[in-house]
Amino acid sequence: xxxxxxxxxxxxxxxxxxxxxxxxxxxxxxxxxxxxxxxxxxxxxxxxxxxxxxxxxxxxxxxxxxxxxxxxxxxxxxxxxxxxxxxxxxxxxxxxxxxxxxxxxxxxxxxxxxxxxxxxxxxxxxxxxxxxxxxxxxxxxxxxxxxxxxxxxxxxxxxxxxxxxxxxxxxxxxxx
Length: 176
Hints:
By secondary structure, this protein is of the alpha+beta class. The protein has helices spanning about 1-15, 45-55, 60-70, 100-105, 165-175, and strands spanning about 30, 35-40, 90-95, 110, 125-130, 135-145, 150. The protein has one domain (about 1-175). The protein contains five helices and seven strands, in the order αββααβαββββα. It is globular and about 50 Å long.
């Protein structure tokens, strides 16, 4: 009975999420940036869930869980919250200047054909910090496994971010 109910919910969710709109028309950028830093970690889901199950967390464990699991930031955090991110196992990489245009075409507000949403517990292993003239203006936390993201620093609607193959395009940019 439970399997049938879950299947019905997923089916109805998928139908409800499919929309027929103009794809990639009127791309309005989330940010005007000249630099992007990419932080990533390969921490396993098992390790994350073991942390969640602990009775008490150290300050560092709590901060790590916040980076990986917090799903609703409303403001750009003080840039000092990212200064020590590497001590939590994240690696930092500056995105090449010649890739910024490609990122701009992904990180923009637009409608998509057949928006698809997944249901899973997101673990945000990739964090992009958008800067302009050295100042942080926005960030995105991305879970490639779930196809989920959290974006802060823009007043644009980012609820359809990653649709129309944009997660795959972003993944290819970040791998290089």
